[in-house]
Write a structure and sequence with these properties.
- The complex is a heterodimer of chains A (136) and B (231).
- By secondary structure, chain A is α+β, with helices and mostly antiparallel strands.
- In chain A, 38% of the residues lie in helices and 33% in strands.
- In chain A, the strands form 2 sheets. A 4-stranded antiparallel β-sheet of chain A has the order 1-2-3-6. In chain A, strands 4-5 form a two-stranded antiparallel ribbon.
- The relative contact order of chain A is 0.17.
- In chain B, the strands form 2 sheets. In chain B, strands 1-4-5-6-7-8-9 form a 7-stranded antiparallel β-sheet, with helices on one face. A two-stranded antiparallel ribbon of chain B has the order 2-3.
- Classes of the chains: A alpha+beta (136), B alpha+beta (231).
- Chains A and B meet through helix 1 of A and helix 1, strand 8 and strand 9 of B.
């Protein structure tokens, strides 16, 4: 085996190893995003449930955050949310209420909902619900 | 064909060593990454399964029947017994109905369910807590009240061995990774908050020998839909 052949073989092996390393790194990132997304959806649903229970939506958006443990038990991840309510239609007659669309956007690892994270993309999720507010 | 010289042989062995070490590091990284991913996905899936069950039971239940037993337990959080943390290992009891498709199980006038069992969720007080869902039925198949089960207590219904619990009909272990399980009622709007934290212990980091705990936390807020009268 000549030196050139040897170097070529080592190069091929290195490429294979680096590719495998990349696959495992992608796998870790994917599971991190998956758990973040699950926690985000559960958090968004809870915020939506709480907002819907209040029963008096306003077009003024609401912002907030909460620390949730999604990976390391020593440090939590901060999940930010923005809640927006859109008035869909007025009451169709006397005694009838109004319809509102409530949407919660949850994002984590960054205070900017459009922030991308390397190897993961956008770490945000959005959950919405149409609620009926009875006439007073 | 000539034999290899000593320097050639030494170079070959060194090259082989480097390749073997690289392969070993690669294998270790791969297996630890895989282990981490399996643990992470496992506790996440477990949390979602538990959440779906609790949510369904609470949603079908009656707010006035919900009874919570509060208790705490000290767990080791740094895996060497030096640091301890008091965590919640609560128990939640609610009324339930066996046979939602039986017309005889509903009140003829009000249409409300005629409750016939209690459902209890509780976390055991041990280092790696288990979350148990058990069904309690009164002896003789009697109906149960829509109000709290008066005999519900830690000693009666939240034992380490669920088989020894009083009047238990059946039980199932939903999780074996419970770190914290707590609940609270909201009287103002007749809702229940349930929080669960699961922990996968002693998982090695992919890039180091450090052992860490993987944690997944979730909280649900549920309004029991069969509450009557409503506020």
């Amino acid at each position: 085996m000549s030196l050139v052949e040897l170097l070529f073989a080592i190069a091929v092996l290195s490429v294979a190893l680096v590719s495998l390393l990349g696959v495992f790194t992608v796998m870790i990132n994917a599971t991190s995003k998956s758990t973040g997304l699950s926690a985000g959806v559960l958090f968004a649903e809870r915020r939506l449930e709480e907002a819907a229970a209040k029963g008096s939506p306003t077009p003024i958006p609401e912002f907030g955050s909460e620390g949730i443990y999604t990976h390391d038990s020593a440090s939590g991840t901060r999940f930010y949310y923005s809640l927006r309510s859109t008035h869909l239609c007025d009451s169709a007659g006397p005694g009838l209420g109004q319809a509102w669309l409530m949407e919660v956007e949850v994002y984590w690892w960054s205070e900017d909902p459009d922030q991308m994270r390397a190897g993961m993309g956008r770490t945000a999720t959005r959950v919405g619900r149409i609620i009926y507010v009875p006439a007073p | 064909m000539r034999a290899h010289s000593l320097p050639e042989l030494m170079f070959g062995i060194q090259l082989l060593l480097v390749i073997v070490v690289c392969l070993f590091i690669m294998f270790r990284f791969g297996s630890r990454s895989f282990q981490l991913a399996v643990t992470r996905q496992g506790i996440e899936g477990e949390a979602r399964r538990v959440a779906a069950l609790i949510e369904n039971d609470l949603l079908n239940s009656h707010y006035q029947s919900i009874n919570i037993i509060r208790r705490t337990f000290n767990v080791d959080i740094d895996n060497d017994g030096e640091k301890e943390l008091a965590v919640a290992r609560y128990g939640v009891c609610m009324v339930g109905l066996r046979g939602w498709d039986e017309p005889g199980n509903f009140d003829f006038v009000t249409g409300m369910p005629i409750w016939n069992e209690h459902i209890v969720y509780y976390a055991t007080d041990e280092e790696e807590g288990r979350l148990i869902r058990q069904i309690i039925r009164p002896p003789g198949g009697a109906k149960v009240s829509q109000y709290r089960l008066l005999t519900f207590s830690s000693a009666n219904n939240m034992n380490l061995n669920p088989a020894t619990n009083r009047n238990q009909q059946s039980y199932i272990t939903l999780s074996t990774h419970v770190l914290d399980f707590n609940a609270a009622t909201e009287n103002s709007n007749q809702a229940v908050r349930v929080a669960l934290k699961l922990r996968g212990k002693n998982v090695r980091r992919a890039t180091s020998d450090k052992r860490v705990d993987e944690t997944f936390q979730m909280e649900r807020r549920i309004t029991p839909e069969n509450t009557f009268p409503r506020l």
